Amino acid sequence: MLRTDTPVTVYRKDYTPPAFAIDHVDLVLDLDPQRTVVTSTLKIQRTGTADAPLVLAGEELELVGVRLDGQPFSGVKQDGDSLTLTGLPGTGTLEITTACNPAANTTLSGLYVSNGNFFTQCEAEGFRRITYFLDRPDVMTTYRVTLRADRAASPVLLSNGNLLSQRDLPDGKHEAVWEDPFRKPSYLFALVAGKLERIEQTIVSASGKQKLLQVWVEPQDLDKTRHAMDSLVHAIRWDEQRFGLELDLDRFMIVAVGDFNMGAMENKGLNIFNTKYVLANAQTATDVDFANIESVVAHEYFHNWTGNRVTCRDWFQLSLKEGLTVFRDQEFSADMMGSESGRAVKRIEDVRVLRQVQFPEDAGPMAHPVRPDSYEEINNFYTVTVYEKGAEVVRMYQTLLGRDGFRKGMDLYFQRHDGQAVTCDDFRAAMADANGRDLKQFGLWYSQAGTPVVTVKTAWDGASGTLTLTLSQRCPKVGIETRAGMPDKQPFHIPFALGLIDAEGNDLPLQREGEPKAGASTRVLDFTQAEQTFRFINLPRGGKAPLPSLLRNFSAPVVVDYEYSDAELTFLLSHDTDAFNRWEAGQRLATRALLHLVADVQANRELKLDPALVSAFRSVLTDGALNPAFREQALMLPAEAYLAERMGVADPTAIHRARLFLREGLARTLKAEWLAAYEANATPGEYSPDADSMARRALRNLALGYLADSGDADMQALADRHYQQSDNMTDRFAALSALVNSFAPGREHALADFYERFEDDALVIDKWFSLQGMQRGEVGPHAGKRTIDTVRALMQHPAFNLRNPNRARSLIFSFCSGNPAQFHAEDGSGYAFWADQVLALDAINPQVAARLARVMDRWQKYEMPLRERMRAALERVAASSTLSRDVREIVSKALSA
């Protein structure tokens, strides 16, 4: 049964500590797919007023019995999803026996069954689906867990911490007892039981202690685990070296499951992962998959300290662990790239995601601060704002304080708060106190939503060699901030990094007015006022003003408003020593050209290629001194979704036509250069996911995609040969994508061949579905081949399963969120399909349905009649009488925006 009751808004200001502490938990679980019986024995201690009841949360539970200090207890009242116990003493032992049905649990929250095996997912509020409990993150306790199950059906029994004992029981059953010596909140509890195999490795920690590492998977997947294990070892070593943090348990386990709502979960010592972020070998995983596995394995491991040892006081503080840990995994991945150019590529990738996904969220109906002030359904706040923007906030600490200062702040944070549930303000205080800095104003990044816009103006006095830089910031109210009575927004503390470049392309040493001498060529300005002026002196006199390189390395999550000329952007693309801003200059040029083309499409004018942009692309494509991975990033056109956000009123059809025209034009005009890049970046020999090989394959496969889009038969034949001769998934799938999206004659044969080769590998078939959901189709009122028809047909394919989140995301989400031109068809067919699938998924898995519902957040951004039809689809979903709280919050906020 789904939670369809009217949601109650929870406010951060209403936080109160729990009325009881739980000193220890003994859990005994008799695992059975249809009826698992759970006996929970709690050592409780009153911490509130003498008459306060103990109110425990529970969902979908059968209450079998309650005992206090060994005797039946009658002061129990069941009320919806809660269990209220009155008349309890100051201390006591409470025993609660419940039963649940894991096989019927399609929400994949709590205890559930996947392919005959038992798994748990308890964040944020899944533990209450296992037993009645104070299911909140500030209730931290130790756990001893006894698992019992049929030995033949579940030969492996795992839980958090250390294995104390194992034994056989009568009637073909067996038992394992686990104990976690570290206090943790209930959301970090985990168990796994079933038929699994493992690879394992023993390492010695920095302090000389032996640690057992295990990766558990279904038997057929054992040959795809090596990369995950290697990634875990790399993450452990990196955390020891970068932050002085060691693995604190004797063993660390990763388990892969095919049915999982999220990417992975950091349960203490027993991380449960979506198979997508564990399984990989050369034949089945792309370079992107290998990189994602390394990143996610590291992320969940890093949570052992930033999330487990120190956790959140309440769910409003979610970014305390998630923003910090995303920053840590970004830094790890950048270091694994092995070079400064590699670090720059990683930074570009992260900012691309932020701009394409988080900036629109910051401008939409679900806009919220990094630390929200209220929510109706906490599952809806696992957002890119909390994660990715939260990581940018953490990065700004490092930018302001330096790497050494940031490390000092981290050390103080753990010294003060190890074993505690704390707040974002506690983290900020540690950073401030460790460095003697006043960071009070910086706290506004946690409490104010939206993306600040920084307008830059310069004034040059050539006679004195003085450049005056004036920065002004604005950030309109968004989301809940627009309600009557909300306070005015205050200026943010923005670390604004910049450099000045002379006419020869050299960075200039910078000396601010009042400083005794010039310093570094990149300076970080403390921009704290609504408008602020900075003056740089003793610059070379006479001639042209130096060209500003603004917001270097994307030093803050803001939009910079400065009108560079095309010539200035071209100069920056060629000369800026800041690799991020070099990429940024190219993106600005391409965005400007694309938006001009969109206007031409809308006005029915002839479309023409911009020769200056072609020249800029040629210079990057042929510059062998540039890292191939950087060239690949620089030569990717801005996404259609990003272009839509840059328009006052979005026109998806015009955007698609303009972007396709530019892409095909670049393909034809630069055919020789693309072909040269394709041939020069082959990676002969055995496949390797090392950074250099990945970079070369990335550029080569980008070139192949452009070549296929030229429309030339010989280039489409090249893509077909590339597909047939590939010895790894990266090359094979890139070729398949090129064939499908260029409408090459061999596309249908290649799709059929790909399915036949990989039909037994679920993750590879997810790619097959996803590619077809995002494939180009004809657009406009007379469209013939429409992608939605393909998607509807694929939903009837025997391999499609709506109940599996990966499969649903691979096809439905890919179409609805990854194919804007086809999704936003003028007849509204995409919106009707969206409504159908949101309602169908909501009946099975509200968390997945709510994420699909977010596709329509920005409905008011679109032109008529699209906007009208999007609203109708939202109203249709909102009218459902069985809508879950998860989806209801999303659609109601969208409609009320």
UniProtKB/TrEMBL annotation:
GO terms for molecular function: alanyl aminopeptidase activity; metallopeptidase activity; zinc ion binding. Keywords: Aminopeptidase, Hydrolase, Metal-binding, Metalloprotease, Protease, Zinc. Its cofactor is Zn(2+). Its EC number is 3.4.11.2. InterPro entries: Aminopeptidase_N-like_N (IPR045357), Aminopeptidase_N-like_N_sf (IPR042097), PepN_Ig-like_sf (IPR038438), Peptidase_M1 (IPR001930), Peptidase_M1_dom (IPR014782), Peptidase_M1_pepN (IPR012779), Peptidase_M1_pepN_C (IPR024601), Peptidase_M1_pepN_C_sf (IPR037144). Pfam families: DUF3458, DUF3458_C, Peptidase_M1, Peptidase_M1_N. Gene3D superfamilies: 2.60.40.1840, 3.30.2010.30, Neutral Protease Domain 2, Peptidase M1, alanyl aminopeptidase, C-terminal domain, tricorn interacting facor f3 domain. Residues 450-562 form the Peptidase M1 alanyl aminopeptidase Ig-like fold domain. GO terms for biological process: proteolysis. It is an enzyme of class 3 (hydrolase). Coiled coil: none annotated. Residues 566-895 form the Peptidase M1 alanyl aminopeptidase C-terminal domain. Residues 26-188 form the Aminopeptidase N-like N-terminal domain. The keyword Plastid does not apply. It catalyses: Release of an N-terminal amino acid, Xaa-|-Yaa- from a peptide, amide or arylamide. Xaa is preferably Ala, but may be most amino acids including Pro (slow action). When a terminal hydrophobic residue is followed by a prolyl residue, the two may be released as an intact Xaa-Pro dipeptide. Belongs to the peptidase M1 family. This is Aminopeptidase N. It comes from Cupriavidus metallidurans (strain ATCC 43123 / DSM 2839 / NBRC 102507 / CH34) (Ralstonia metallidurans). The lineage of its organism: Bacteria, Pseudomonadati, Pseudomonadota, Betaproteobacteria, Burkholderiales.
